[in-house]
Amino acid sequence: MDGEKTRHGVEIELKLQVRSEDLSRLREKTGIQRRGGALHRGEWESPLPSAQPDVALLAGETADGHLSGLMVGELRPVFASHIKRTVRRLENAEDSGAPAIEIAFDEGEIRTPAGVTMPVSELELELKGGDPRALYDLALALSEIAALRIENRSKSERGYALVEAEKRLPVHAAPIELTSEMTVEQALSTIIRQCLDHLANNEELVLQDQDAAALHQMRVALRRMRSALSVFRSLLPADQYGACGGQAARPFLRERE
Predict the structure, then answer these.
(1) Is the dihedral of CA 210, 216, 219, 224 positive or negative?
(2) H runs (alpha helix) in 43-183
(3) Would you say 135 and 128 are in contact if contact means Cβ atoms under 8 Å apart?
(4) Measured CA angle at 98 (ends 92, 100), to 5 deg
C-alpha cells in the first residue's frame, strides 16, 4: 500500500509491506532525486505490531521529522505491489575480500484499487561488498544471456503513473550541475551519468511506441555525451575514448542519414 504526503516541499512516500513470512514493516522513503544520473533518497523502516500503519513509529529524529503531525486519517491506499521475490547471493566463501553480490528476482504486478494492473518481471543486483566493478561485470554478462534492459523507474514511480493513467512523454535533457570543487574526473562522471540518464529515460518510448521524438532525444543524449568526451579527450586513454565516443552513437547517426 502506497500513499504520498508533501511536507516542506519534500514528497514523502509511505509504504506498508507485508512480507511472505507475515512480517509487516512500515517504510518511509523521501521522493527520489536524480543527481547527474544517480538516484538518491532517504529510507527508514520500522516493524509493525499489526497490519494497520502507525506513523508514530517513524516520526521523530529517525525519519528526520518528515512525518511530524501526520495523522493516519490523512493516508489513503493508492496502489499495491504484489511481488514474489527470490534472492540469491554470489560470493567466494574462500576469499573474504572477494565481491559479494545479492541477486533478487522479482515477479508479480502492481495493482490499483480499480483493478488496473502492470506486470513486473525484473532482476535487481545489489553490491554487498567488494569492488563495484564486479557488479557491472555481472550485469554485462547477464545482458549477453538474456534480453535485459535497465529500468530507471522505481516500482512506486510506475505505480503512481498507473494510477494517474499517465502517458509517458519524451524526456528532455536536465541541467547539469557542476561545481568548482569537483575534480576533472568527477565533472566528467557527472556529465556522462546525466547523458546516460537522458538516454535511458527515452528508451522505453522508442522500444514500445517507436516514438520519433523520444528517438530524437536519445540522439541528443548521445551527441551531448560525445561532445563531453571530445572536450576531455586529452585526459582519456585513447582506447577508452574510441570505444565511448565513436561506436556508441553510430547506429543512431546512420539511421538518421
Answers:
(1) negative
(2) 133-145, 155-163
(3) no
(4) 70
